[in-house]
Amino acid sequence: MEPPEDFLPPPECPVFEPSWAEFSDPLGYIAKIRPIAEKSGICKIRPPAVSILGRGGWPPPPFPLEVEGPCPAGGESPLGGGVCL
């Protein structure tokens, strides 16, 4: 099926890549970027890179994590507080 001739694809959504310092308070960071994200109605937040060995002493975030990729035998996320997909 061909798209209609007058179809215009939607614009790209904004993508945010916070540092660990910015992301240490994830809900505060979301509040900070909210005015930008609301303009498009959606956004993507790429969290800071995480080593499979841990986050260097950072406390676990206040929400569960889902990690894609290899998982230990127990199925628990190596980051704690979540499960591997």
Automatic annotation (TrEMBL):
All residue ranges annotated as the JmjN domain in the record: 13-54
Cross-referenced PROSITE patterns: JMJN
* Pfam families with a match to the protein in the record: JmjN
Q: Which GO terms describe its biological process?
A: regulation of DNA-templated transcription
GO molecular function, a single term:
histone H3K4me/H3K4me2/H3K4me3 demethylase activity
Keywords on record? Chromatin regulator
**Which cellular component appears as one GO term in the record?**
nucleus
Which Gene3D superfamilies does UniProt cross-reference here? Answer: Cupin
Which PANTHER family is this protein grouped with? LYSINE-SPECIFIC DEMETHYLASE (PTHR10694), LYSINE-SPECIFIC DEMETHYLASE 5C (PTHR10694:SF43)
Protein name in UniProt: JmjN domain-containing protein
Which species is listed as the source? Bubo bubo
